[in-house]
Amino acid sequence: MKCLNCGSEITNNLKIIEIFSLTPITPNYICNFCRQQLKPLINRDNCPRCFKPESGGICSDCQIWEKNYHKINCHQALFEYNQFIHSYFKLYKRYGDILLAKLFYQDIKSWSLKNHFDVVTYIPASPGHLKERGFDPVYELYADIFDLQNLLSKKDADKPQAQKNRLERMKTPQTFFAQPAINQLSKDQSILILDDIYTTGRTLMHAHDIFFERGFTNISTFSLSR
Ligand SMILES: [Zn+2]
Ligand SMILES: [Zn+2]
């Protein structure tokens, strides 16, 4: 197997227990060299709400969310946003290398096996972006791992997120609307909303609101990077 990011051969050092195990081995699509450039977020004294690393308690952003908007974040993420993640998303999203959707398959899969939800949905691309790219990057990142439900739609934005400053992003009005399938769910079901990157939390907060306003109370969010 070759690394999807750099093309190097991946050496799988299987443990004896894995070779004789009857459970299927989760495929790995990233080599050790590329993996070493990642900064995992696990066990880093993260903010218990948004997973910001080395926060030493609830971070200032989450305190603002809670004080001003009475919203409690329940977010988890796998890797800190760094140069490697930046380059990865550039290749994957901007240059449309859809094969890269599987680069973190093993990591996301292993998270999915430890965290259970009744309903899993995702942040969809806006119609404009979908047409431009030809695929939905968040959907493709998770589609092989979770039983994804299409519950949200996104309006086309006036200005791309990347061109906005932090304050503009936090103040963006609601950009999502609900799909009719949302009405088939029961309010006590646990909901997980997936995104690719968590920056200010605004996008996931908007998606969260769609469920919250309809009476759902058990809502969590997840992103590959934070
Ligand atoms: Zn590699
Ligand atoms: Zn936080």
TrEMBL record:
CDD domains reported for this sequence: PRTases_typeI
UniProt xrefs under InterPro entries: ComF/GntX_DNA_util-trans (IPR051910), PRTase-like (IPR029057), PRTase_dom (IPR000836)
Top-rank lineage group of the source organism: Bacteria
Family: Belongs to the ComF/GntX family.
The name this protein goes by in its record: ComF family protein
